[in-house]
Amino acid sequence: MESYADWLRARDDAELRALLSARPELVAPVPADLDALAARAIAPAAISRALDRLDRFTLAVLEAVLVLPDPAPRALADAVGGTEAEAAAALDRLRGRGLVWGSERTAAAPGVRQALPHPAGLGPPAREVFAGYPVERLVGLITDLDAKPRGFPDADRLLRRLAELLADPEPLIADAGADARAALAQLVWGPPVGRVADARRPVRVGTATTPIERLLARGLLAAEDDRTVTLPREVALHLRGGRLFRDVTAQPPPLTGRTGGLPARSGERPEDAVARAAAGAAFTAVRMVEDLLERWGLDPPPTLRSGGLAVRDLRAAAARLDVEEWHAALLIETAYAAGLLTRTGEVGGEWMPTPAYDVWLLRDTAGRWTDLAHGWLRSDRVAGLVGERDDRDRPINALGDAAVRPVAPAVRTAVLRELAEAGADLAADADAIRARLAWRRPRRSGPLRDRLVDWTLREAAVLGLTGFGRLAPHARDLLDGADPAPGLDKHLPRPVEEILIQGDLTAVAPGPLVTELARELALAADVESTGGATVYRFTPDSIRRALDAGRTADDLTALLTRHSATPLPQPLTYLIEDVARRHGALRVGAMASYVRTDSPAVLDEILADRRAAPLRLQRLAPTVLASGLPRGELLDGLRSLGLAPVAETPEGGVVITRPDAHRAEPPPTAEPARWRADTTADEAVIAAAVRALRAGDEAARLGAEHAASAPSGEPPRSPAAATVEMLRDAVERGARVWIGYLDPQGRASSRIVEPVRVEGGYLTGYDATRAAVQRFALHRITGVSEIDS
Of 372, 400, 512, 654, which residue has the fewest beta carbons closer than 10 angstroms? Predict the structure, then answer.
């Protein structure tokens, strides 16, 4: 008799590749042979994952296979309300995923019935659901419904008779009364089980008083245990009118939403209007992330004991960016997901930009946005949860572990794909998207997914993946695995290197500034307004801030002259020279602190000023004053008098009061890469896995002595650079190579390998000498030599 493993073994290589592509978790790691693959494919966890990927119609067909005695395409089509071609196509999908099998008769794969205990919302047939009844109770039940059985009581004969009586249960239902029929109606479409007290209590037709007792006495409900009753399948099908499902369709619900309303320019396509709006949002998101991380690089917020970001720091970030808190939380979580932000330690650390942030700054705006979009799309962190409370009534903080939801990446991708299907003419609404997702993945529905749909739409608009509710062309590229930067770059404003400096001590940036100019201008001037253009204002405080950071008056003048579209106005040059002339004339040290100057007259003026009394100054020498205040407080006090002192080191040098930007290395992750439910595998790896399964099956049948042997002689040796180049060339050509390999103990071995992929410091390929797919550390490969296939 054919087994499930035999059926798998009879599949050709193309069918096995399709199975492993649809269920990639089956090859992580690659099973030893097809018997091991069959055992893994019918494991409860594997079956559950495969069921989670089925759409509503295909799942209904599978449930019908479990219910119908002969699940042929015509019978399945009648059961689910589709055409025979639609039912046959669904069967092919199920067969391709290994969920149904059989060469002569279609049957559900082992383990499917256990994963779907109530197919189509139906309970077990009467013979099964009453099988646990004692013979005495079955005799009483049959006696009340028909007549006392003749002869010696036989459980099997009693169950057959009860099933015959329930084949047409309408007289029994009518006899039970209208209130009993109403109780059955609650279980008709599933689930077919209910909870009642003392379900196994003895009850007969003559003594039954309540609706449940009348149903139990007539066999219309069966007591599973002391608190559970089940509706027999025959009764449910009668009340359904013979139907298995109420509203199953072979196609997802249609997308609905707003049409038109795009402010397209003359001769512009709708896609271009969407791209323009999305590009504006993308540019703003990139600028805000840069602004926030620049600030946190100088003044990093502390890490909470729980590992997240404090509410006050989130509010401060929102105030700095002039956005709502959810918006700030999204940008922070996205920066973290993109690897631009991390914490310095588990306890007592701070949130700081990573060295990758400095590399990110060197990229153009489109490239930077691409990094953020990739991070957001694959992140399992949900910014929308920030500010809510968890199951233990504790607040969910940004960057905290409580915001992790593993389903988030799959839902985001699914929502964007629905928008892609809608096209540029339709702004699909959230309810329509939820309905389609419920059809595509019915087993994953729930309140969290419904909320994730709303959050995804909101976040996609803020991050620049959508415009006017439509998916932007560059976001389509992102979904398809292509580079979205070229498509986005066409619609981004060009970075400018010139500013318009005006006589009222303001500078106007007519567009986004190049990174270096933006950072220097933010240091020397204050942002007065933003919008289509950014207005900066130069003040004595902003000029002093630049001087405190180590810039000189000549540096500032040269910078502004180089980037100004017009000659520098005299008021600005006078301001820079005046602040620079007074800057540093006073030196402050710690004695607790002191004041030093080359002009005794300046100290005379300070001591004569009554406002200086709180500074507790004492003259130590004609040019030196001492104070009991800390150096920082003394600096602030002197500046409040209209002076411009600078801090001094013990050696007499100037202290740069703008601290160097901090960076933190992201902690190495100890978590190995794991297959998620929607993870896809590389086609080359799948092909290598099929070869390994076939070889493992052959080795199990014929013996290990038939495995491939490496060539005789010493393992090959080649330079490291040449080794990597030869392996990559073998991947492109699909060639077989002979490699020398050192194990962790330093023992050398020879392998015959068909390389599949070279990345991340590892070679992945089919090892013909071991009949398995293996990963080889590149630094352990001593050499490569090509051999004949």
Answer: 654
Model confidence at 307: pLDDT above 60? yes
Contacts of 712 (CB under 8 A, 6+ apart): none
Q: 520-576 pLDDT, tens per residue?
A: 888 899 888 877 688 999 999 999 988 988 889 999 999 999 999 989 999 999 999
**Are 129 and 234 within 8 A, CB to CB?**
no
How close are the terminal C-alpha atoms of the chain, in Å?
A: 38
Q: How many other CB atoms are found less than 10 A from the CB of residue 23?
A: 23
Coil, helix or strand at residue 728:
helix
Instruction: Give the pLDDT confidence score for residue 711 in this predicted structure.
Output: 66
> Do 409 and 333 touch, CB atoms closer than 8 A?
no
pLDDT averaged over the chain?
A: 88
pLDDT on residue 696: 74
Alpha-carbon gap, residue 615 to 613, rounded angstroms: 5
- Looking only at the bridges linking them, the beta strands covering 526-529 and 587-589 are unpaired
How far is Cα 377 from Cα 355, in angstroms, rounded to an integer?
A: 22
Distance CA 330, CA 637 (A): 40
- Contact residues for 363 (Cβ-Cβ < 8 A; gap 6+): 371
**Could you give the CA distance from residue 183 to residue 204 in angstroms, rounded to a whole number?**
18
Residues 6+ apart with CB under 8 A from 522: 294
User: Cα(615)–Cα(643) distance, rounded to whole angstroms?
Assistant: 14
**Residues 368 and 360 sit within 8 Å (Cβ to Cβ):** yes
Task: Return the residue matching tokens 């998620």.
Answer: 676
| CA–CA distance, 492 with 366 (Å, rounded to integer) | 8
What is the C-alpha to C-alpha distance for residues 46 and 217, in angstroms, rounded to an integer? 41
Bridge partners (DSSP) listed for residue 765: 755, 774
Crossing angle of helices 447-463/270-298, nearest 10°? 90
Which residues have C-beta within 8 Å of that of residue 122, sequence separation ≥ 6? Answer: 67, 190, 192, 233, 236, 237, 244
How far is residue 759's CA from residue 710's CA, in Å, rounded to a whole number?
A: 25
Structure tokens at 602: 């300046």
Contact present, 769 and 704 (Cβ < 8 Å): no
The answer to whether 215 and 184 have CB atoms below 8 angstroms apart is yes
What stretches of 198-350 adopt beta strand conformation (E)? 222-223, 228-230, 257-259, 341-343
Q: Is 611 left (phi over 0), alpha (psi -120 to 50) or beta?
A: alpha
Cβ atoms of 730 and 716 closer than 8 Å:
no
Closest CA to 465 of 335, 274, 337, 289: 274
pTM of the predicted model, to two decimals?
A: 0.77
Residue 762: name the closest of 738, 736, 727 by CA. 727
Q: How far apart are CA 707 and CA 771, in angstroms?
A: 7
541-544 — which CB contacts under 8 Å span 24+ positions? Answer: 543/575, 543/576, 543/579, 543/580, 544/579, 544/583, 544/644
Please tell me the chain's helix, strand, coil percentages from 3-state DSSP, rounded to the nearest 5: 50, 15, 40
Query: Is there a contact between 538 and 507 (Cβ–Cβ < 8 Å)?
Result: yes
Distance CA 391, CA 429 (A): 30
